[in-house]
């Protein structure tokens, strides 16, 4: 069962039922976008005519979380605490929580803030009476990161290039021919790929969030209008075919279903919640893979919740395509089996099979213990 609630940020919750265990919450998977940030000054996001071309956006720095973004991420944590208070318990116990971020400052900081909102220190965990905060365990992957940054896979790149050059996508881009011509003139930058569209939207969104004056040419096309439509087109292009869905949102889907299977098999009996701190393309990619993307760009701190067995009350229910209101876990996995990456797909992204990767991690662990 998929349910939605608007809570200052988009929250989408899916509950997957497993038979014979009663309606008891077993595990919560959450992937969320980082909070509001300052614009990037690299990676192709800025443009030559920008009035902020040489700005480092003090006091934050390029691409770093702003105070608004810090507050929004912290509020997401508070919402999670309020939603799952009894399930999580009062104390922070590391084996209960798996917290992982992509390898960017803004996602790492967002994850720390979300965790601070979920787990303020109580009783014996209060180590400083003047500070309502405690350290927590968070992790991130450097390159390659198949879960939150799967876009460097050769197969993905080849498929994406084919889609970008396909007749269908070229026809969709043709609808924006005049706008793209004007954008090139206004920004001094050419727009040839979907990522170029996304970069412009992200840059303007960051400026807008910081309440900085925008160029006059943005009126009527941003925040609603043509620029947003182009950014949404890029998100759809990134998951345009089944292959792209599998290698994009399918990575998170594989992680979530694996986590739920582990909970069912009790191979990780202590885990209660998995938190992934990522980007708008992760949110959109998973929604498109699930077939429930509603053509709205994921806002800062947007989140997808996927529960094993929990049945939230008083929410709008969205039924997973091909499933009933309560979706049995085995049927859920079967429905999306073609969109969950295979061992060969994983080898493309991380450069080795999961078994090889597991053996390497085990070897490193043994070396650390010597």
Automatic annotation (TrEMBL):
The keyword Transmembrane helix belongs to this UniProt entry's keyword annotation: no
InterPro entries, per database record: Acid_Pase_AS (IPR033379), His_Pase_clade-2 (IPR000560), His_PPase_superfam (IPR029033), Histidine_acid_phosphatase (IPR050645)
The entry's keywords: Disulfide bond, Glycoprotein, Hydrolase, Signal
EC number(s) on file: 3.1.3.2
This protein's name: acid phosphatase
Record carries keyword rRNA-binding: no
SUPFAM superfamilies noted in UniProt: Phosphoglycerate mutase-like
Family designation: Belongs to the histidine acid phosphatase family.
MF annotations from Gene Ontology: acid phosphatase activity
Catalytic function, reaction form: a phosphate monoester + H2O = an alcohol + phosphate
Top-level EC class: hydrolase
């Amino acid at each position: 069962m998929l349910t939605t609630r608007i809570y200052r940020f988009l929250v989408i919750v899916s509950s997957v039922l497993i038979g014979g265990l009663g309606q008891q919450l077993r595990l919560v998977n959450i992937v969320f976008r980082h909070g509001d940030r300052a614009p990037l000054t690299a990676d192709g996001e800025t443009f030559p005519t920008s009035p902020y071309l040489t700005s480092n956006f003090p006091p934050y720095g390029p691409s770093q979380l702003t105070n608004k973004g810090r507050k929004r991420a912290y509020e997401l944590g508070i919402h999670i605490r309020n939603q799952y208070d009894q399930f999580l318990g009062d104390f922070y116990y590391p084996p209960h929580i798996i917290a992982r971020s992509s390898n960017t400052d803004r996602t790492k900081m967002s994850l720390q803030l979300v965790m601070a909102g979920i787990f303020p220190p109580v009783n014996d965990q209060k180590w400083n009476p003047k500070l309502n905060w405690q350290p927590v365990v968070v992790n991130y992957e450097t390159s390659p990161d198949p879960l939150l940054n799967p876009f460097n896979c050769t197969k993905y790149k080849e498929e994406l290039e084919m889609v970008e050059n396909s007749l269908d996508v070229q026809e969709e881009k043709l609808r924006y021919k005049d706008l793209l011509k004007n954008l090139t003139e206004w920004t001094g930058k050419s727009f040839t790929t979907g990522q170029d569209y996304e970069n412009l939207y992200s840059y303007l969104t960051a400026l807008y969030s910081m309440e900085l004056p925008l160029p006059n040419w943005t009126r009527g096309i941003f925040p609603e209008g043509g620029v947003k439509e182009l950014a949404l087109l890029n998100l759809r292009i990134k998951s345009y075919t089944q292959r792209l869905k599998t290698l994009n949102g399918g990575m998170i889907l594989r992680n979530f279903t694996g986590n739920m299977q582990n909970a069912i098999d009790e191979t990780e009996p202590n885990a209660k919640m998995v938190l992934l701190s990522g980007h708008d393309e992760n949110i959109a990619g998973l929604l498109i893979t699930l077939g429930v993307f509603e053509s709205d760009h994921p806002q800062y701190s947007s989140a997808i919740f996927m529960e094993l067995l929990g049945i939230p009350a008083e929410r709008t229910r969205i039924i997973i395509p091909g499933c009933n209101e309560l979706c049995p876990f085995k049927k859920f996995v079967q429905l999306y089996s073609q969109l969950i990456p295979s061992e060969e797909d994983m080898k493309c992204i991380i450069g080795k099979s999961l078994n090889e990767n597991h053996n390497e991690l085990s070897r490193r662990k043994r070396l650390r213990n010597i």
